[in-house]
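Q: I'm building a small set of examples for a reading group on sequence design. Run inverse folding on the following structure and report the sequence directly after it, with nothing in between.
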């Protein structure tokens, strides 16, 4: 899962960065609306976490701009203001959910999972494919009850492929799911991650194969 955080309070940014990283969620960050709009247009995010009181205006102003560009990305609004009128206003602007500061990280994570489900085809947190079951909440992949030892990046690759199970995932789109804008990425970095994941899936007899269409994309399929 890849998240864009639009927030200007350094303590909040660092707390969220740590928490999301621990949960293998890829994070890009900006502290202002102007940059947020540019980032949301140039990259695809699974969710935007949006503060309201930002240096260049009310965060809510971003949402109609996204929708006008037919960008359906779910938006979770974070704010210190939590009365009913503010919540209604946030939803009227086209945001998808609302969380009042201070909040528990666990609640934020649960809401992110719910929003990601709504945005994709996933009906539950646990998906089965081949002999593998993947828990999107715990970021845990298992075969016959045994947890696979996957790195953070391998989990990001697997997650993106599972969300598109049986469908081709274009190379650029997979890159965006696995590396944030701040990551320094070598030209073959994605292929390395994919080939490591493929080896681990095969060694675990997961019944899954990652097929590569060179230069085009990747496809996760059953291989029982
Ligand atoms: Ca703020």
């Amino acid at each position: 899962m890849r998240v864009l955080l639009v927030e200007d309070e350094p303590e909040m940014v660092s707390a969220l960065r740590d928490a999301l990283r621990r949960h293998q969620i890829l994070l890009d960050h900006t502290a202002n609306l102007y940059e947020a709009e540019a980032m949301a247009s140039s990259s695809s995010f699974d969710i935007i976490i949006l503060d309201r009181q930002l240096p260049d205006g009310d965060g809510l102003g971003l949402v109609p701009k996204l929708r006008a560009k037919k960008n359906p990305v779910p938006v979770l609004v974070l704010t210190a203001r939590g009365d009913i009128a503010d919540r209604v206003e946030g939803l009227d602007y086209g945001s998808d959910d609302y969380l009042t500061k201070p909040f528990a990280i666990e609640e934020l994570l649960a809401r992110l999972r719910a929003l990601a489900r709504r945005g994709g085809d996933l009906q539950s947190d646990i998906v089965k494919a081949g002999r593998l079951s993947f828990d999107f909440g715990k970021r845990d992949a298992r075969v016959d009850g045994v947890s696979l030892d996957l790195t953070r990046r391998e989990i990001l690759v697997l997650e993106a492929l599972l969300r598109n199970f049986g469908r081709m995932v274009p190379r650029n789109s997979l890159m965006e799911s696995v590396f944030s804008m701040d990551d320094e990425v070598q030209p073959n970095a994605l292929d390395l991650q994919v080939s490591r994941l493929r080896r681990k899936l095969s060694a675990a007899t997961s019944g899954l194969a990652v097929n590569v269409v060179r230069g085009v994309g990747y496809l996760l399929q059953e291989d029982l």
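The mean pLDDT is 91.
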